[in-house]
Each structure stands twice: as C-alpha cells, then as structure tokens.
Specification:
This protein is an alpha+beta fold. The chain has helices at 3-10, 70-87, 118-134, 136-139, 152-161, 168-186, 189-194, 238-241, 250-262, 303-310, 332-347, 355-371, 388-398, 400-410, 414-427, 433-443, 448-465, 470-492, 498-506, and strands at residues 17-27, 51-53, 59-63, 93-94, 144-149, 199-201, 213-215, 219-221, 292-295, 314-320, 378-381, 384-387. The chain is 46% helix and 11% strand. β7 (213-215) and β8 (219-221) form a beta hairpin.
Length: 512
C-alpha cells in the first residue's frame, strides 16, 4: 500500500459499518432438537427486526443492526441472547455448535411457521421447497453471517485516488465485486482459522453415504477436518454448481442470477406448485449458496431489482462457524480479523475469475474443510500446488499494512494483535477451534453432542447473567408487542389472492 493511499484512507475507517446474523438451534435439556413452537414471548418471527427464525421452527436467527461502533454491536448481540434466554421454554438451550444437535426423522423437523398472511405463506412455501430439494437436515446447519460495508468517505477517497471516470455508485459496486472475487480466492483461510465443525452427531447422516470415521457411539468426524459445515457434507447445492455465476461486475452477476431464477430445473420439475415456489433452479435469490453475497438495503424491492437500481451497498460473509467455546459464537478479536481480511480483499489486486479458477477454489475449500490441518497439505492454485502454510503465511503477511492502517485509524493495537494471533495458528494448528474440539472430545471420551451440550449449558448461564439495562429490556418488550400487532395486521388486510401475490413477488423485472 502506498503512503499516499494510506494517508487518504486512514481517516475514513471510523465509518465502517458491521452487523451480525447469528443462527442457533433451540434444544431440549438433553441436546435434541426442540419441538416447541417459536415462543410468543419473543414476538412474531415474521415481523420482528432482530429475533426471527431461519429454516426450522426451532432455529433462531438473531440479527443486529449495522453499527459503526463495534462495542455497541457486541452489546446488542449479547442483549439479544439475554432476552432470548429469559423467554425460552423451561430448560431449553441455545445450541452452541454450527452442526445440529440430535435430530429426529425428517418428517418430525418442523419448518418455520409464520402465520396465515400472504407474506407468511410465501416464506413457508419457500422453505417447503428447500426441504423437498435438499432435505431438512442440511437446512438445520447454523452459522454466523458477518455484514460489512466500507464507508462512503473511503470509496470517495479511492475514487479520487484512482482517478476513476465511472460514477461513484458504479465504482462502489465494481469495487465490492472486486472484494468478492478476492474473498472467493482467499476465503479458504476462514474455515482453516475459525472452522469449528470437525465432527457431527450421527443423526445428521441418517440415510447418507459418507467417509467419516466413528468417534464413540454417537459421533463421526475427520481427523484433520476444520469445517464439515462448509464441506460437501454440509451446506452445498450441486444443482447450482453446474451454472457458475460471473462475478466480474454488477451487470454480469445480475444476468447470471436472473438466468437461474428463470431457468426450469429438470431435477425439481416433479414437485408440484404446493411443494415449492416454482421449478426454477433458484426459487428466490436467497437460495443462491456461496461464501459471500453482495447485498443492498431495500425492503420494498426484491433483492435483484434493488441491486439493479441502487448497486451494492455491503457484503455478507457467510463462512463463519459458530465457535462453541464462545458465548456469542465469535469474539471481538475474530471480528477485527474479519474486517482486516475483507478490507485487504478490497485493496489487493483482483483479476477476473475464470471457470477453471472457480473450480479450483471449490477444490481448495473442500480440501481445507475436510483435511485442512493435515501436515504438509498442498492446495491447488493457478501457479500449481502450494502448501497451505506457505499460502497462509503469504496472505496474512500481506495483511500487515492493512492492520497498521486500522491501528492508526482507531488508535489501537487490537488489529495487529488479532492478525498476530491468527498467524500463530499456521505454526501451531492445535490452536484452531477444530483441533481444540477434537482434543477435548478425545481427552474426555465424549462425543459431539456431549461436548456442545456442556458448552451450551455454560453459555446459557452467561447469557442470563449479562447486564442489560431496563431501557433495553423495555425496547425489546415493545418490539415483541409491535411485531405481533404487525403480523395480525398483515393477516387482516389481504387484498390480493395468494396466487396473484406470489406472481407479483416472484416476477423478474430487472432489465440489467
């Protein structure tokens, strides 16, 4: 990074905005998927802005707003956990792992329920499609999505520094796709450093062929795995992978997504109208799986059209496992590293991704997620096979300048320290969460369900004891009431037929 660019950018970093979406399963005291309904004391899962459900009725999703102050973001997430812990049915736990707890048969996994309004029925129909296409088990996998945007002042400074002739809005979108391509290239490092799903409960694998090794009576694992959640055994979609998306720019991306939203899938044609939203490869934009997504804030327009009109406003990093050792699933130091990584991806060179490189990226991620801690592991690159450690040292070394920039901008040493902590994992892989989990399971002669249940029980005490102001509790209680009233209003006022509503909501009007 040149001194001139560093000087231009350092004063803009305080405007970075970040937010967290945390998925977690409600379980019984014995670590099985809870069969209770979403507690009414948490409000409406359809309309509550911060407490909702993901795929399953027992799968909570806690969402913070976007903050420029990171301490406020973590306080918000802690407050949400405290509020939820106090509202759960007696003795229920929040499952601390990314891979699910003890699962019943598919037919006994209840998809999320949202009421009788048209918008609720659409959400439920979409989830029915997910269940029929991929099975319910895969959908119960949980994780953390880290939302991140660089401030307008940062992009204005970059726009001027590079003497770009594009409009600022087009330039920002272009640069977010620049960032996304680099996240795809270098994103293998996230499961290596933070992957926390090297083992799983045997109930997840019911009816599936696999190459995992048994551990005790109830668990399977791979000895060098980092994140089975992100492997081919986890959250993947083989049908989509046949049609790679072009991430060169906004127009190419929208064209690719539009095609998948319109293209009928032979694989899903046998499902009738009541079993999915439509027969396309993607029912909705949200069905597009990937390590990172371009995003735009607009509740009125469908995501495709909003991005077409307004461009990219932030990115959603989707590859962070819930760390079962941490009450919130991630730490502030980890958050510091993620922001360094994402900013590095915005600033480092980022050529176009060829189809061959995209396939190589998939191979690299599969190797890291299933055997990332194997000594002397080689990873495929465009320059040939390179050792994981060598690649990691080069990548993290290249982030030193960004860490110095952040330390200067925030008047701290926290960012350099977070980078230093992650560098240590390359020379001592026992420091990774995946290694720690397997070491604990081996040392204590316990399986995945026992380990995560013990940790979950401890975290519930932490959540309950977190100090939340009376004002915050009052605001959260008000949101419960407001969200329930909003759901009731939606159910009362339904002017269109459901089929007309569905046609309107799923129409592709983007002309990009």
């Amino acid at each position: 990074m040149t001194k001139k660019r560093e000087k231009v950018l350092v004063g803009t970093l305080g405007g970075i905005r970040r937010g967290i979406e945390k998925e977690t399963i409600r379980t019984t005291p014995k670590g099985a998927l809870a069969k209770t309904l979403h507690p009414r004391t948490l409000g409406s899962a359809l309309t509550h802005p911060f407490i909702t459900t993901d795929f399953a009725e027992a799968q909570l999703e806690l969402i913070t707003p976007a903050y420029t102050n990171k301490n406020q973001m973590f306080d918000c997430l802690s407050s949400l956990h405290h509020f939820v812990a106090g509202a759960l049915p007696k003795n229920e736990l929040l499952w601390a792992g990314s891979l699910p707890p003890v699962l019943p048969a598919d037919r006994d996994i209840t998809s999320a329920q949202y009421g009788s309004s048209h918008s609720a029925r659409m959400k439920m129909r979409y989830r029915q499609g997910l269940a029929n296409r991929y099975g319910k088990r895969m959908q119960t996998i949980s994780g953390i999505h880290y939302n991140f945007s660089l401030p307008g002042a940062f992009w204005q400074a970059m726009h001027a520094h590079e003497k770009s002739e594009r409009s600022l809005a087009d330039y920002v979108s272009e640069k977010y796709f620049h960032l996304i391509r680099n996240v795809m290239r270098h994103g293998w490092v996230i499961p290596f450093l933070f992957g926390a799903s090297p083992a799983l409960d045997k109930s997840y694998l019911e009816g599936r062929e696999h190459q995992l090794e048994p551990m005790g009576d109830h668990s399977f694992y791979l000895p060098w795995a980092t994140s089975l959640r992100l492997s081919s055994l986890g959250y993947t979609n083989s049908e989509q992978s046949k049609y790679p998306i072009n991430y060169d720019d906004k127009m190419a991306y929208l064209k690719g997504v539009s095609a998948l939203l319109a293209m009928p899938s032979e694989k899903y044609r046998h499902l009738n109208d009541n079993q999915q939203l439509n027969t396309a490869i993607l029912q909705l934009e949200n069905e597009l799986y990937g390590s990172v997504r371009p995003k735009v804030v607009n509740a009125e327009l469908r995501p495709l059209e909003a991005m077409c009109r307004h461009g990219v406003e932030y990115v959603e990093l989707r590859t962070v496992d819930n760390n079962p050792y941490l009450p919130l699933g991630l730490s502030e130091a980890q958050s510091d590293f993620l922001e360094l990584f994402l900013t590095h991806c915005a600033l480092a060179p980022s050529p176009s991704l060829t189809r061959e490189e995209q396939l190589m990226i998939q191979q690299r991620v599969e190797l890291v997620t299933t055997m990332g801690r194997k000594p002397d592991l080689l990873l495929p690159t465009v320059d040939g096979d390179v050792s994981l450690v060598e690649l990691g040292e080069a990548l993290l070394g290249a982030m030193d300048d960004v860490a110095a920039l952040f330390d200067s901008g925030f008047n701290t040493q926290a960012y350099s320290l977070s980078l230093s902590l992650e560098k240590q994992k390359l020379s001592d892989m026992s420091l990774t969460p995946s290694a720690m989990m397997l070491a604990d399971m081996t040392a204590n002669d316990i399986g995945y369900r026992e380990l995560v249940q013990r940790l979950s029980e401890g975290h519930m005490l932490t959540h309950s004891a977190y100090p939340v102001s009376a004002e915050t509790v009052g605001q959260l209680n008000d949101l419960v009431t407001t969200s329930l009233n909003q759901q009731a209003e939606l159910e009362h006022v339904q002017e269109l037929s459901f089929s007309t509503f569905l046609t309107k909501k799923t129409a592709i009007t983007c002309d990009c």
